[in-house]
Queue: 4 jobs
Job 1
Amino acid sequence: MLAPPNELIKMLKAAMPEYVSYLDEYGEPALHNLIQPLEEKLLASIRAELNGTIGALMSVEQAKTITDHVAKIDAEARKKVGVSPLDGAK
């Protein structure tokens, strides 16, 4: 085993509080029964993390697009009124 059974049980209880009573009742012999639920929980957590990361990246990309459009409109407006970008920064 990777770690002593009592340490695995502690980790599983922390990661899967819904199985605390199950682990208390059945202990080490029940560890193999939690492989599938643990895998599902880990995958769900990874998916949620990736979705959050993807959402954040999409927000950043959207913000960049908006900023680029604003900069373009600003440059066009300044050009029309004859103001350079440095003149407007004062």
Note: Residues 35-81 form the longest helix (47 residues).
Job 2
Amino acid sequence: MVDKLVIGHNHVMFNASLTAIIASIYDHQQVLFVAEKLHSGLIASKNSDIQNLIFEPFEEDPLPGGKLTKLLPWGKKKIGDWMFISKYIKRANASDQNILIFTCLSASSLLYSAMKVRRKKFRSYFVLHGELEFIFQHGLPLKNKLKGWLYKQMLKSLGEQTSCIVLSDIIKRNLVASGLVKAENVIAVDHPVITRTVKYASKPKDPVVFGHLGIAMRKKRSEVFMELAQYFGQALEKPQPIFRLIGKMEPGFTSLSGNVEVIANNNQIISQQEYEKNIDDVDYAIFSFDNENYVYRVSGSLMDAICHGKPIICLKQVYINYLFEIAGNIGFLCENVEEMKDIIGRISRREMDVLEVYGEQQANLEKLMLRFSVDEICKQLEAQIR
């Protein structure tokens, strides 16, 4: 298993879950996970009890910025990535009984790897949970349009012994319908999670804490959270609800965050332990995704809300609609921002009709967490990967 993209605390839940799943499916074989040093250590700490899972960490330099003056180091980094990937393809090629799984690669590395393994005799799998939406979106900046083209070429180049793994049937249906890939080359499973023991509250705190989980960014439409915080900062609700951002902010959001409690160390990424501790103190998690983003990639922050038992207040969106369909009442599914304001206001005023479903919402979130557990996703994947 090779991850040549993720650095540090990103994707910890996913890679911890997936390594545990693969180690369970191939329990009589040794499973090697190759990843950046800090990230590898975090995964190892989550899966320290798995005997057939071993780790091979490496030092990773961040990708240089996009300025023309950094084009040469950027090119060197890409070539270095491809040489690194080739090394593990060569190792896997030593036996047709070996299996190679790429858990996260850049778009260019995905295409390079797919071309390199397409005629190999060993099985290889590519987990696609990145920027697949660029395949389907229009009017993109040139950089994102190029990524979409690379994804298309990668899908077209899949060989007989090569499959991709996606994180919902929604993604699989749309990819197959696009004609880019055959159904037999796509494996769909739900996003796996590491289950945890949750101490559920009987009702929200007073004042209520509404949380934005993870980095504030444009593709999450985090400005909606800031707008809600500003609106209730000026409202007459007593006590006023608390809006808490657990994570750093992309450029441009600092000026919008006047009514938001920001949990970040000088706008730097906080530790996984601090991140999870602060989620525990939130009553509701707010999401404002649209159908342009987080349909072809599954939000780790959304999975965090599920695993911490935090009812969600969100806008209707294809993937979130799916969660409500399979899990029932896990929060409040809103048509627009005005309806979100109405729900938040009623919760803040502690109106009984919205508070009395808090326990039901938490119970359904726990069932959803168990549905996405390592054991359950292991069954989904094993039925398709063998």
Note: The chain has a mean pLDDT of 92.
Job 3
Amino acid sequence: MTTARDGGRVGVRVGGGAEAHWTVICSSGNKVTIDGWVKDTNGPDDGQCAQVYATFPYSGVTRSTSLACGNGQRLDFIWSSSGNSVDAWLREV
């Protein structure tokens, strides 16, 4: 898990087959946004996909990307909710 606050930029890899990068931006009015991408970096025969999911602690909202499957498939995401922090994870599924 990574927790980032205003302006936090994060890049993570797991298991050699998943990669993601995101930026967290806090806006006036108690709003936080996470903007990034997730990519499957292994070949299509490994049977695994990459996914990012996030929880906004203040609002309790949880979001997740679709599964990025197949070597090089990349999915962009941008989510916002109330609060000033977001907890985000990259996983292989």
Note: The CA atoms of residues 9 and 73 lie 21 Å apart.
Job 4
Amino acid sequence: MTKTLTITAVVLVVFLGICYWVISDKQKTSVQGVGESLTVVQHYLGMGNLKASSGLMEQVRYDIESKTNAINKFYTLPSIRRSWKDQLLRYDSLGKHLKKRTDAAVEALSYVADLARQGHYQMAEEKLRDGTIESASEDRLSQVLARYVQRLKFQDFRAADDAASQLDSLLPEELWANDSTNAFWTLVNEQREANRTKQGRIATEVKQLAAMAVARESYDFKPSLRGRTMIWDFTKNNVDLAYELLGDDLRASLWDQQITMFCIIQRRSIEIGRYSISNEPGYKEKMTIGVVYWPQRKSPGVAEVWGGEPVYSRPVRYTPEYGSAVNIKNWIEGLPRK
């Protein structure tokens, strides 16, 4: 009988020991999981990815709430209790740091948006460089913000749009509900529209002057560029796409005082031949472009610029063939600068 009790006691102790080991191992795994998640949060914060940091911190909060009761037991090992307490303190510290970074981001976005709206891009760049805005540390967020300011400074709206989209991927969604942040997001469109309005106004004022001279072939007409350039297409009543494709040294901004304005007065598709079997025409684009110096309101002349030739031969098909469009960008880039 005594032997049976002894064996039973030993089995019970072993069983309880195994159960305790399993529970402790599960507790330890839970603590380690929270710690690993917080390490990732710290990494995201270092990269300036506040959106990923915020999302993961919310997941960690849920994990802590769901696992606290399972760890705060009278039988929990002291070492696990200490590790859990360390992770809670770490969670609290990272939460405060995330809030500080988020507040700094809101301040930076609002401040930069105000400066950019007034055209004070140099001041905005200096503020980002000298570190007076906390988010201007060496991380992804500050790099994208600096690129946004630089691209808007040069009226490179396509690249500024891209930078704004990248900012959207780095900032928590709730941050975009902030009025100042929304103002920053819409600034590209505001600047693009203001630029379009200025180009349209200047082009309208000089249209008659731009069309007065007799057009000359572009290979024989090389007007000097004075200041940077704008390109208005009267056939579309809009800024020509080539304007946004120009380099920073050629693309005029809202605040430029000296401008060379290129006015697209006419676009024509000139038939230069027909294909032998289909009898379909081949067309080559011809563009008439007036050039005017602003604000002097003086025109050096009007150019006739040709696009590319349609292909010489092709598979038989019963549709017209068009050569490549006029590459205004390349033509302007080849002009002398004064």
Note: The chain is about 55% helix and 15% strand.
